[in-house]
From TrEMBL:
Top-rank lineage group of the source organism: Bacteria
InterPro entries the record matches: HigB-1, RelE/ParE_toxin_dom_sf
The species this protein was found in: Microbaculum marinum
Coiled coil: none
Protein name per the record: Type II toxin-antitoxin system RelE/ParE family toxin
One protein family per Pfam: HigB-like_toxin
PANTHER family assigned to the protein according to its UniProt record, in alphabetical order: TOXIN HIGB-1
Lineage: Bacteria, Pseudomonadati, Pseudomonadota, Alphaproteobacteria, Hyphomicrobiales
Amino acid sequence: MKSDTSGINPAWVRRVVFLLDAVDAAKSPEQLALTGAGFHALKGRMEGRYAMTVTRNWRLTFGWDGENAVDVDLEDYHG
């Protein structure tokens, strides 16, 4: 996994790295239901994707294929 954190708000780096490590270790989306991670399946136009809370509006979002997360992104899909 790439460890370049440039472009990420420095206040978020620890949280983003924690969540990415959890996503990398998981073999299914259900394994990501960590206390405090805010894991949830997305609905509507983003159905089929999942999200974990980084900050109030920002989420780590991703799809799932077999035993791997795919199309991982850091985004504010609320605004």
